[in-house]
Specification:
The protein has 4 helices and no strands. By secondary structure, it is mainly alpha-helical. It has one domain.
Length: 106
C-alpha cells in the first residue's frame, strides 16, 4: 500500500544532495584539482549537474576549454540543456558553501 503523503524526491532535489567522494580534492567550481579515482570528470556527478558539452567538453559554468561551436554557442546542448544545468550547478555550489551543505556523509 502506497501512502499518498510520501513524496519521492525529484531529480533536482536528489542532485542538490550530491556529495563528492571522501578524499576528492576536485574543485567543482573551477574544474581543477586532484581526483583519487583518476577520472577527469566525476563519474558520480548527477547528469543534471554536469555543465560540460558532451561533444567538446566545453565547461559552460567556467567557460573553460575550446568550444567547437566558436564564441557563439550553436550546439543543441548549449541552448537546450546548458542554461538550466548551469543554474542548478550554481545552486548546488551555494549549498556546498553552507555549513550544512559542506558536511560529508558516509
Amino acid at each position: 500500500m502506497k501512502h499518498d503523503q510520501v513524496k519521492e524526491p525529484t531529480i533536482v532535489e536528489r542532485s542538490l544532495q550530491f556529495v563528492p567522494c571522501e578524499g576528492c580534492d576536485w574543485d567543482f567550481e573551477t574544474g581543477e584539482g586532484l581526483t583519487p579515482c583518476g577520472r577527469y570528470l566525476c563519474p558520480l556527478l548527477p547528469e543534471v549537474l554536469d555543465v560540460h558539452c558532451p561533444t567538446c567538453l566545453f565547461n559552460f559554468a567556467t567557460g573553460a576549454s575550446n568550444s567547437q561551436c566558436g564564441e557563439v554557442h550553436t550546439c543543441k546542448f548549449s541552448y537546450e540543456h546548458a542554461p538550466q544545468r548551469v543554474e542548478l550547478f550554481h545552486r548546488w555550489l551555494e549549498l556546498q558553501r553552507t555549513p550544512a551543505g559542506s558536511a560529508r556523509s558516509e
